[in-house]
Amino acid sequence: MGVPALRIHGRFEQEWAQSKPRGMFSVLLLRARQPVPVTELTDWMWPVGKAPDDPVGALGTYRKRIVHALERMDAPPRIRYRDGSYQLDVDRDEIDFHEFGRRADLARAAAREGDHANAVRELASAIDDLWTGTPVPDLHGERAANWRQLVVSESLAPAHSALFTSLGALGEHGQVLRRLADLPVELRQTLTMVKHRLAAQHGAHRFQEAHSYYLDQRRRLRDEGSLDEADELTRFQDELRASQQEHRVVVPVHLPSPRPAEVPNLLPHDVTDFTGRETLIEHLDRITTSATGQPAATIAVLAGDPGVGKTALAVHWAHLAAGRYPGGRLYHDLNGFGEGPVVHESEVVNDFLTAVGVAAESLSSLSARKVRLRGLLSGQRALVVLDNVRDHNQIRHLLDCLSNCTVLITSRSRLPDMARRGASTVPIQPLTYTEGKAWLAKWLGPRASAEAAATSDLVALCGGIALILKIVGERTHSRPGVALAEFADELRDEHTLLGLGGHGPEGSVRAALGWSYHAMSPAEQRLFRLLGTHPGPDVSLDVAAALAAQDRREVQRKLDALVDFHMLSQPESLTRYRLHDLLRRYAKELASASDEKPAAVRRLLDFYLASSKNADRVTTPHRVPVDTVAPAAGVVPVEFADRDSAMRWVARERANINALMGYASANGLHEFVMKMASVVGEIFQRLGHREDAVAGLRIAVQSARLVGDVFEEACAWGNLGFHQLASRDFEAARSSLVTARDMFEHVNDPIGIAVTDLRLGRLALDQGDASRAIDNELSALRTFRRLRSTGEEAITLYRLGEAYRRMGNLTEAARFARDALRLAEQLGDEHTRGCAFAELAAIQLERGEVTDAKRCCEHALRIHEHTDFSQMGDIHLTLASVHVNTANLRDAELCARRALTYCRGSHDIRGQAKAQRLLAELLYKQARHEEAAELWSLALGSFEAIGNQQAVTDIRERLAETPAVPSIPADRTESIQHPSAGYRSV
C-alpha cells in the first residue's frame, strides 16, 4: 500500500505522474475490472464542494496522463470509458492490496489447521512487505478518509490480531510485545491490542509488568468513558491471573506439522544418454545448497528456447540430487506453451496431494488443499520440478504451497517477476558444438571420426537443440549402412523443415520429427495424425478411440507404441496422453494435409457433445434435453453411473471443451457451438465456472445468427439471460430474455416461451415486482402442465412458492412449495428437491414454525452441499434466522458468517447484503457495537449497489442510533476467494 507504483522494465516507479492522476489510478485499482461512474470518482477525488467546474473533463485529462505512463510498461493494462464510467482491465492478483487479503486468508486457513508457523510467515510477510504506507495517500476527500479508516479496521487490524494469536500459540511472546510497540498509538490502544499485550506479558511470565499495564489501561478506558470496555478488560485480566495461579497460562495449542503418508517420487525416467551441461549442473548444485550444506528452500528457473533441453536437464539433475531430498521428488508439466489451456494450479495441488497420500476430494476447497499441501511439505525438504511454465501468474499461488521446497522451473520465458521471490534464473543455451558432437558421438561410435566432415555437418544442422540431436542419433545408429552425408542432405532439404528452434534449415525440427513418424507403422501414423486435430491440452483414451473410430483396446496398443516412440507422454494417467509442443504442431500439420481430417473432426465433436449430453442428462434428469443428432459411426460416448461421476468428467474435460468451442467457432462448425453451449452451461455454473458458460453462449449466439437458426439463437439468448440474471446484471438479462421470447414466439416453440416466462418472472421478483413474477410463472406453469413437462413444472412450483412468500401470501406459498417437493420426490430430482426444501424452510420461518424450518434447512444443506454451491448462502441465511428466533445468537452468528462466505464465493451481491445486515444485527444484540457498525457500513454499500433504497434508509437510521466505539474488531469472516502483487497500489 502507499503511493501507486508501476512496474516499468522490472522496477517499481512511484513518481510516474502527479498526485491527481495517481489518485484516480488508485481508485481504479481498488475497483479493478469494475466500472466506476464519474460521479463516484468525483467523490473520491475531491472534498465536498471542492470539485472543479468540469470534473468530467478533468478526469479525462487525468486518464490520458495515466495511459501515457502505462504505455511504458511491458504489458500495459487498458482503461476503458463507456456509459459514464471508467474501468481498469487488470487482474486483481497484480495489486498488492488484494494480495494482502489473499495472504491473510491463507494464514487464517493455516491457523485453523493448527499450522501457526505458516500462519505467522504469511501474516508477517503481508504486513511487513505489502502494507508499507498510508492507503490512497493522493486522495484527500471525505470518502477516501472514510475508506482509509474502514480498511485499517477491516484488514490491517485483524491481520495484526491474527499474527499475535499465532505468535502466542508458538510461544513467541517477545515478538508480540515488540510488534505491538511498533503499532501506531491509536491502534495500539484498542481493546483488542491491549488484550494481546496483556496475554503476551503473562505468557512471558512478566506478571508485575502485566498488572501495572492493566491498571493503567483500565484507568484510561474509564477516563475516556469506555466503561464497558474497562469491565471487559477486567474480566480478561481475571482469566489470565486464574490461569497463572493454576500454573497453566492458556495459549493456543500448536500442532506439529503433518507429514506425508508416503515419500513421493513423480520424476519421469532419467535421460540415459545425457551428455554435457557439466557447468550448469554444478551451478544448480551451488544455488540449491544452503550455507550449512543442506538443500535450500529456493527457486531456480531454467529458461531457454523450445527443444533446447530444459526438461532433460531438469529431470537429469533432479535424479542426480534425489538423495538429498528425504521429503520426496514431485514433478508436473504445466502445459504453458501448448495449444490448449494451461494447467491450473488446482490440478497441480490435487496431483501433489495424491502423491503424498492425501485424497484431494476429502478437502472441500482449494484453500484447504493448499494449506494441507504446504503443511505436508513443511517438514523434510522436498524437490519440486514445475515443467513448461508459461508465466509467473500461472504458478504464483502454487509457489505459496512450496515455500519450504527446492523448486526447479522450466520455461521458454525468463519469468522476470520471479526475481521478487528471490528466484535464480539459469539461461539454457543450445548445446555447444563440442557438447553436441560428444552427444552425437555416443550414437555414432567409430563413424564419428571415420565420417568426420558429415558428422560435423550433422552437429551444425542440429543447432545444439537436444531434441533434434537425440532423434538424429537414434536414426543414424539404427541405419549403420547409410552414409552420414545422406542424413545431412536430408536435414538441409527446406521442404522437410518445420522451422522451430531457430532460423533457416539449421534450426529444422520437422525432419527430426518426420524420421520418428515414418518409422512407425501405417496404423500408428494414422493415429498420430488424427491426434493433431484435437485443439485441447490432452487426450483421453476414449477421445482417441473416437478419433480413430476403433475399439479402445486396439487404440490403446497404438497409443502405447506412440509413447515408446517418444511421440506421446503420459504425465498423469495411464488413460490420458499429451503431445509435446513441437510434436503437437507437427501432428497438426500432418492432419491438415490429410483427407481424413473432416471426418475425424466430426467424430471428435460428436464424442464431446454426446458425452456432455449424457452428463447433463444425469445431473439434470428432468430438464428438456438439447436436441442433437446421433454421433457418427465409431463414436462411443462416455456413460455416467451417477451425478458425481458426470460432474467430475466435465470438470476434467473443461479445458478441452473450451478449446473445442473456440476451434469450432473459428472453423465455421456452428452446429456444435450452438448445441455444446446449451449442454454444458448448467454444469459449468454448478462447478463455479459461470464465466465459461457465458463465454460459450456468446459464441453460440454469433454462430446461430451466422447460420440463420432462429431457434438455436433463441436458446442461446435465453440461457445467456439466465446466467446474467444469476449475476444480477438485470438490464442485460432483460434484453437477452426478451430477445429469446420474441424468437421463440417466431418459431412457435411453447416450451421455449414458457421457460423464458419463468426466467422473466424471476427477474421481476428480483427487481421487487412479485405480482408480475406470479403472472409470468403461472403462465409458464400452465404450459408445462399442458405439455407434461414435469421437470420444469417442479421448478416452477417452488419458484411460485418464493414469489407468493415475498408477496406475503404464506398460505399459497406453502402450498406451491409442498407441491414442488412432492413432485421432485416422485421424479427423483434431487436438485429441485433441495431447492423446494430451502423455499419451504423460508416460508415456515416466516410463519413462526421454527422447528420445521430448521429441519427443512438441514435437508436442503445435505442435498446442495456437493451439487450446487450457489444455493448454500440463502440456506444458511434462513438457518441463521431460525437460530435468532430461538435466541441462539452464537449459532446464528456462525450461520450468518457462513452465508456471507458462500455469497461472496458465488458473487451473490444480494445475498452478501442480507448476510452483512443480519450479522450486524446479531453483533449489535451482543453489544459488539463497533463490529455491528462496520458490518452495517458494508451492507449499506451492498444495498446501494443493488438499488434497494428502503434497506439503505433503514441501515442509515441504525448507524445513526449506534454508539461510536473506536475499537478494532476481531478477525473478519474470510472470503473463499484468493485474489500476488504486480501493482504497488492503494
From TrEMBL:
The keyword Membrane does not apply. Residues 95-241 form the Bacterial transcriptional activator domain. Keywords: TPR repeat. The keyword Hydrolase does not apply. SMART domains: BTAD, TPR. TPR repeats lie at residues 794-827. Residues 963-986 are annotated as: Disordered. It comes from the Bacteria. GO terms for molecular function: ADP binding. This is Bacterial transcriptional activator domain-containing protein. It comes from Kibdelosporangium phytohabitans.
